[in-house]
Amino acid sequence: MKIGVVTSGGDAPGMNAAIRAVVRYAIPRGVDVVGVKRGYYGLTINQIRPLNLRSVGGIIHLGGTFLKSVRCPEFRTPKGLEKGRETILKNGLDGLIVIGGDGSFRGALALQTAIEIPVIGIPATIDNDVTGTDETIGFDTAVNTALQAIDKIRDTAQSHGRVFVVEVMGRDRGFLAVSIGLTAGAGVILIPEIKFNLDSICQKLKLYDEWGKTTTIIVAAEGIGDTYNVVDHIRTHTRFEVRHTILGHVQRGGSPTARSRLIANLFGTRAVELLLDGAQSKMVGLKGDTIISKDLEYVCRVKKRIDRRMYKLAEELAI
Ligand code: ADP
Ligand code: F6P
What we know:
The chain is of the alpha/beta class. It folds into two domains: 2-138 and 256-301, Rossmann fold (3-Layer(aba) Sandwich); 141-252, 3-Layer(aba) Sandwich (Rossmann fold), CATH 3.40.50.460. It has helices spanning 15-26, 39-44, 78-90, 102-115, 139-160, 175-184, 198-210, 228-237, 258-276, 296-301, 308-316, and strands at residues 2-7, 32-36, 48-51, 95-100, 119-123, 163-168, 188-190, 216-221, 242-246, 281-287, 290-295. It has a seven-stranded mixed beta sheet with strand order 3-2-1-4-5-10-11, with helices on both faces. Strands 7-8-6-9 form a four-stranded parallel beta sheet, with helices on both faces. Helix 1 links the parallel strand 1 and strand 2. Helix 1 (15-26) runs parallel beside helix 9 (258-276) and helix 7 (198-210) crosses helix 8 (228-237). The protein is elongated, with a radius of gyration of 21 Å.
């Protein structure tokens, strides 16, 4: 058996650990592994290299992906898919492991339909917006990176008695913002899934002030739109001093946490097992503390739900 492994979409800390797990679990079981460089783009231009046990040495602790990743618009077209199909045939691949987010899995499903080789997805994105898994590789690392930054922001916010609006990533979903907000002790969390009113936020800040809270951190998901509007509104409608921080891509880098690496190890090995067992188009996932698998078709069709209890809890504890 010969399989390919590809990292696609936005990178996530722990992708390297996942590639290592795939390679080191597959080879001793008689499976040859090749790496596809630069996401689906590499499939369209046949950028493939063999991987051995040593090619994945010294990478378990590194953020990013040594296979590189790009967003490849061409892969969404029949021509791009056809090029991918040719590369797979040319290299004699019997299966493909795709490490990425929901967009990458849509690509995986399209490819599976076009060529009918088994495709297994490993969820890896800091956004944690993939259906069929409680957690994605990289999410825990991004939450912790953001927390470290916000803890520092809190120091200066407290010294000056300021309100801070901190924008965190999450392309169009609020999973990161809710986890970061709850654990950073944010007074307000703004996410695209839950409607908010800027005047009510100002009222809340005034109430907090009456209660003796001198500092409030507002964690806002990038998916709500321009977070500067929130800053501007508070500035014009209250007497509070407000500052704005966009954490940005700092959340995507850095050494993966133990949890991100653990999930990477468990997902990588299960993905190989699924291929060996003859699975066709599945994604590995985490449910509680159990590793599960779901149909890629289901993963791509169903939208993951925000845990509103976590959101509410953050609100309740912000008093
Ligand atoms: P993520 O996997 O992190 O969600 P993207 O949404 O950018 O990232 O998707 C990664 C890549 O997957 C895209 O650049 C594109 O090459 C491929 N892709 C996404 N959607 C499709 C689709 N419907 N058909 C084929 N390929 C797709
Ligand atoms: O999907 C992960 C993510 O980091 C999102 O949170 C963010 O919106 C997007 O990628 C940024 O993408 P890019 O790296 O292409 O700017």
